[in-house]
C-alpha cells in the first residue's frame, strides 16, 4: 500500500483529538467542531468513559503535584475529584494491571491481559540477587495471604504482613508478604479491590470478580488495544503491543494489520521514523486538516498518555522531553518533575511546580518557554495553573505571573 502523505501538524491534531485534549472548529463532515472531553464528561461514569477512550491510565506513586492518574483525569473530566475514580473499585468496574506500566483498566478488558498472567504463572521463579531460591519463604507467605483473604475479604498489605523478611532480587531486605503479593497480583490471583488514599486493599480474584469470562491468551487483542490507545504508532517502539518483542517480531506482528488495512502507512517529509495510522482515524485526519484549533492550555503530567512515546513527541511536536526524576541533580536540565504545557496543538513551555500541602499552596518555581511568549499565552498558562490549584484545594503561588 502506498504511504499516505501527511504532516506533523495533521497527526498532532488527530492524536490530541483522540485523547480528549483538542478543541477545534471549521473541520469537515461529522467533525466540523469538537471540544475537550472535560467539557462533556464528569463524575464516576465520566471516569469510566475516559478509561475506555484512553484504553488505560498509568499509575505512579510520585506525588510532587498530584499522582499521575489524578492529573490525567483532571485534564479530561469536568470537576474531577479522586473519589470519582475510587468509587469504581468497590463497584467492580476497574482493575489494575500491566499495560504501558501499572495501569487502571476497565474490567471488560480483563481477558486481554491473560497472556502476561499466563506467562508469569508458567515462567516466573523468585530468586534473590545471589541466584539462591527462597521459594519456601514466599510460598509460606502466599499460603498465609490466601488464608487471610479467603476468611476476611479485602485487606491492606500492612494487615497481611506476617513479620517475615527475605532478600529481594534487587538486593534489599523486604517483607516476604510484599513479594508474595506481587507474585499473586502478577499471576492474576490477587486484585486491588479498592484504595484508601495511597493504600491498596487486596482481594482474591475469585471472590472479588467471581464472574470473569474465561478467554484464551490472545496477543492480537492486546496489540489492538495498544493501537487504539496510541492511534499513531511506529514499529521501533519497544513497548509495541505491550508485548516483550524484538525488532523482527514487532515487524512481523504489524504485517497482518497492514495487509488487512487495519493500519495505514504514513509518509512525513524529513522524518526517518516510519509511522502508521489506525485506519479508523483516517476520516478524522482528513477532517481536521483545515480546522481552527483553540489555544486552550493543559498542564500535562510527565506520564500522561500523550507523552508515552517520547520519540513521537520529538518527531511530531519538536519537543524534547525527559522525565528527570531519576536523573542525578547535577545532570538535570530542568527539574525532577516538570509539567509540559500544551497550548492548542503545540507544546509551548515547561513548568516546575510543587504541591506544598502544609502551606496550602501550589508553588510555581520556574517556567521555561520554548519561544518568547505573548502576553495572552502567559495569562492562559496562569489560568490553567490556578484551575489546577483550585482542584487540589490550595492557592496558587505566585497568584499571577511576573510581567
Q: Report mean pLDDT, rounded to a whole number.
A: 93
Number of strands: 19
Give me the number of helical elements.
Answer: 14
> What fraction, in percent, of the residue positions are helical?
25-40%
Structural category: alpha+beta
Percent of residues in beta strands?
Answer: 15-25%
SSE arrangement:
Layout: E1 4-6, H1 8-18, E2 24-25, H2 43-54, E3 57-58, H3 68-74, H4 82-86, E4 94-98, E5 102-106, H5 114-123, H6 135-152, E6 155-156, H7 157-160, E7 165-167, E8 173-175, H8 176-187, E9 190-196, E10 199-204, H9 205-208, H10 219-230, E11 232-234, H11 247-259, E12 263-268, E13 275-278, H12 282-288, E14 292-293, E15 297-299, H13 310-317, E16 338-343, E17 346-356, E18 361-369, H14 375-391, E19 395-397
Provide a descriptive summary of the structure in words.
The chain is of the alpha+beta class. Among the domains are: 124-208, Winged helix-like DNA-binding domain superfamily/Winged helix DNA-binding domain (Arc Repressor Mutant, subunit A, Orthogonal Bundle); 294-397, no CATH class. The protein is built from 14 helices and 19 strands. The strands form 6 sheets. It has a 5-stranded mixed β-sheet with strand order 15-16-17-18-19, covered by helices on one side. Strands 1-12-13-11 form a 4-stranded mixed β-sheet. A 3-stranded antiparallel β-sheet has the order 3-5-4. It starts with a strand and ends in a 6-residue tail after the last strand.
Amino acid at each position: 500500500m502506498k504511504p499516505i502523505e501527511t504532516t506533523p501538524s495533521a497527526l498532532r491534531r488527530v492524536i490530541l483529538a483522540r485523547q480528549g485534549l483538542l478543541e477545534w472548529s471549521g473541520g469537515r463532515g461529522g467533525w466540523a467542531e469538537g471540544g475537550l472531553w472535560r467539557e462533556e464528561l464528569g463524575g464516576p461514569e465520566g471516569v469510566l468513559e475516559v478509561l475506555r477512550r484512553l484504553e488505560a491510565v498509568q499509575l505512579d506513586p510520585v506525588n510532587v503535584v498530584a499522582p499521575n492518574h489524578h492529573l490525567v483525569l483532571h485534564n479530561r473530566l469536568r470537576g474531577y475529584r479522586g473519589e470519582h475514580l475510587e468509587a469504581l473499585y468497590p463497584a467492580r468496574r476497574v482493575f489494575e494491571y500491566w499495560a504501558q506500566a501499572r495501569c487502571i483498566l476497565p474490567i471488560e478488558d480483563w481477558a486481554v491481559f491473560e497472556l502476561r498472567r499466563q506467562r508469569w504463572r508458567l515462567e516466573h521463579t523468585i530468586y534473590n540477587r545471589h541466584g539462591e531460591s527462597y521459594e519456601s519463604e514466599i510460598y509460606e507467605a502466599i499460603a498465609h495471604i490466601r488464608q487471610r483473604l479467603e476468611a476476611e475479604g479485602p485487606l491492606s498489605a500492612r494487615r497481611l504482613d506476617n513479620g517475615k523478611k527475605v532478600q529481594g532480587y534487587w538486593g534489599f531486605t523486604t517483607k516476604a508478604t510484599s513479594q508474595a503479593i506481587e507474585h499473586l497480583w502478577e499471576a492474576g490471583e490477587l486484585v486491588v479491590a479498592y484504595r484508601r488514599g495511597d493504600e491498596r486493599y487486596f482481594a482474591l480474584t475469585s471472590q472479588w470478580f467471581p464472574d470473569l469470562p474465561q478467554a484464551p491468551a490472545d496477543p492480537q487483542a492486546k496489540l489492538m488495544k495498544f493501537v487504539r490507545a496510541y492511534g499513531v504508532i511506529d514499529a521501533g517502539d519497544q513497548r509495541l503491543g505491550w508485548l516483550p518483542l524484538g525488532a523482527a517480531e514487532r515487524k512481523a506482528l504489524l504485517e497482518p494489520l497492514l495487509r488487512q488495512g487495519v493500519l495505514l502507512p504514513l509518509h512525513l517529509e524529513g522524518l526517518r521514523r516510519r509511522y502508521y495510522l489506525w485506519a479508523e482515524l483516517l476520516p478524522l485526519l482528513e477532517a481536521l486538516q483545515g480546522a481552527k484549533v483553540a489555544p486552550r492550555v493543559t498542564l500535562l503530567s510527565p506520564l500522561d498518555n500523550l507523552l508515552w512515546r517520547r520519540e513521537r513527541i520529538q518527531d511530531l511536536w519538536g519537543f524534547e522531553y525527559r522525565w528527570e526524576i531519576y536523573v542525578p541533580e547535577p545532570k538535570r536540565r530542568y527539574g525532577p518533575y516538570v509539567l509540559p504545557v500544551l497550548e492548542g496543538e503545540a507544546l509551548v513551555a515547561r513548568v516546575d511546580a510543587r504541591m506544598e500541602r502544609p502551606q496550602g499552596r501550589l508553588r510555581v518555581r520556574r517556567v521555561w518557554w520554548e519561544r518568547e511568549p505573548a502576553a495572552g499565552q502567559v495569562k492562559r498558562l496562569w489560568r490553567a495553573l490556578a484551575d489546577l490549584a483550585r482542584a487540589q484545594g490550595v492557592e496558587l503561588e505566585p497568584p499571577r505571573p511576573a510581567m
